[in-house]
Amino acid sequence: MQPTDPRQLSIQDFTYLLPAGRIAPEPLADRDASRLLVYRGGTITDRRFHELPAELPAGALLVFNNTKVVRARLHLHKPSGGQIELFCLEPVAPHTALEPAMQQTYECVWRCLVGNGKRWKTGPISVAFTGPDGLPAQLEAERAGAESGSALIRFRWQPASLTFAQVLSGAGQLPLPPYLNRQPSAQDDLRYQTVYARHEGAVAAPTAGLHFTEAVMQALQARGLETAQLTLHVGAGTFQPVKADVMDDHLMHAEPISADAGLLRQLLAHPPRPVLAVGTTSLRSLESLYWLGVGLLRDGELPAVLDQWTPYQPEPAPVPAAEALGALLRYLDARGSDAIQASTRLLIAPGYRFRVVQGLITNFHQPESTLLLLVAALLGPDWRRVYDHALSHDYRFLSYGDSSLLLP
């Protein structure tokens, strides 16, 4: 029997055997040709993704994460010719927020993972690339400090007028998930982005959205289903394995989220409609908005970072979702701001009570992952039925795999 406090959960209770051959190495030729497992109130049926609109509850609001994956993996060379790999994780200076950092010119400092780091102690490394105007460009990097498990890297480039987004676009590679164990191809440049990707900053795709096509989006509209967007820039921590014996000892990675006033108004619209998250990142963002609103009501200020255990603290009296979201909307109106900006470490695990979301569209996740914990929080013990069905019916798993619609 599982403990009721998620902090005492053992990740080893959330595992299953995933044969390597079930991990999809490449996307299908057509995005919406993937399979769709539908779980509705305990019943499982098999569909194709292009049939999704007909499977959704009437009047549902679908919320998408419109982050865009950046080419965050760089290969630079020492003067001697040795290659050093840098994986850009997050900006440090002169900006810590992703979107202004991507528009920075001339130089910047990022926290990075370093491959072959023992071969590079000091001195510059560099790589030549082609700029957006077709002219030669150069990127140089030097160590600027160290942090636990990562390094601070100072980047400079010529022409200095290029933005860092343009530098990454020209010099970098897409950071495919490590379990694909291959180099990115030209196909990945298109297919490892959603068709609605807008704001650059993610180092991993919100993969539930990879199945959507313009035709599916139009079918949603034709059925009278509403859509909305928010932004959570997916960090490398999404692949961070859980190594702790119990979840209380696992530190969730922080990811920046942004949600505008229009989304808040859609969530508050009457009569209430089912809210479905497209992907675990959208779900975590929507539930984080609730807890940010609770923090605002109780403390009089918006939390800068939502702690992973906030939902599991004793509550004097539960705050209705409309009150929490309404507080965020009033906060924006009072400041003349366009969007809520914060970071979240929210961990959703069995024992969590959902405040905003009633359903989820998602791919099939790795064993012993926090993403699998989230699915288990939504479905309860039936998560095993869903995964057993997917395994026994030849579904494809992980980022380029098949999809599921989960309506508990």
Descriptive report:
This protein has 408 residues and is of the alpha/beta class. 23% of the residues lie in helices and 28% in strands. The chain has ten helices and 19 strands. Helix 7 packs across helix 8. The longest helix has 20 residues. The model has no long low-confidence stretch (mean pLDDT 93).
- Strand fraction band? 25-35%
Strand line-up of the largest beta sheet: 2-1-19-18-15-3-13-14-17-16
In the CATH scheme, the class of the largest domain would be Alpha Beta
Would you report the number of β strands?
A: 19
Largest sheet, if any? 10 strands, mixed
Class based on secondary structure composition and strand pairing = alpha/beta
CATH architecture identity of the largest domain: 3-Layer(aba) Sandwich
Number of helices: 10
Distance between the termini: 21 Å
Oligomer class:
single chain
Mean pLDDT: 93
Instruction: Give the helices and strands as they follow along the chain.
Output: EEHEEEEHEEEEHEHEHEEHEHEHEEHHE
Poorly predicted ranges: none
